[in-house]
Amino acid sequence: MTTKGRKxxxxxxxxxxxxxxxxxxxxxxxxxxxxxxLTRSMxxxxxxxxxxxxxxxxxxxxxTGVMPGGNVGADHAIFEQGASAGNVGNxxxxxEKKANPVALLLSSAMMLRHLQFPSFADRLExxxxxxxxxxxxxxxxxGGQSTTQEVxxxxxxxxx
Length: 160
Fold this sequence. Notes:
This protein folds into 2 domains: 1-36; 38-158, no CATH class. Helix 1 packs across helix 2, helix 4 (102-114) packs antiparallel against helix 5 and helix 5 crosses helix 6 (148-158). Helix content is 59%, strand content 6%. It is mainly alpha-helical. The chain has 6 helices and 2 strands. The longest helix has 32 residues, at 3-34. It has helices at 3-34, 47-61, 91-96, 102-114, 118-134, 148-158, and strands at 68-72, 77-81. One of its GO terms (molecular function) is isocitrate dehydrogenase (NAD+) activity. Belongs to the isocitrate and isopropylmalate dehydrogenases family. Residues 1-155 form the Isopropylmalate dehydrogenase-like domain.
């Protein structure tokens, strides 16, 4: 690639990134002004923009460890941690048992709701929120020292 070609490419890249940043800013401003919880809003975007929005929302919500996610198609659905995270594929967190299970628990609630089990989804969400609010069982990324299993056990203990 020529120097001129590189300059043109960088100019285009900066323009695209500026547009994306502007859209995310408008998205956040819209939801903040409406006082709407991002976890309750439905986002329908192409994958690239969905990832950018999910990661931004995760930062606002408290980190990638608390952001649920779901990908729903016409015939299939998958539910997973909703934002890219440093703990995805981080074997050290698994070995040390310090990975935050909240995102996967909330994603499980999304799956239950998708499968038409809203009462079970509500119970799981309520239990997770209660454990986090009580503050006794939190992983390091949420300001605590609990292990993954301790958080899961605490959620199970408060399920009604």
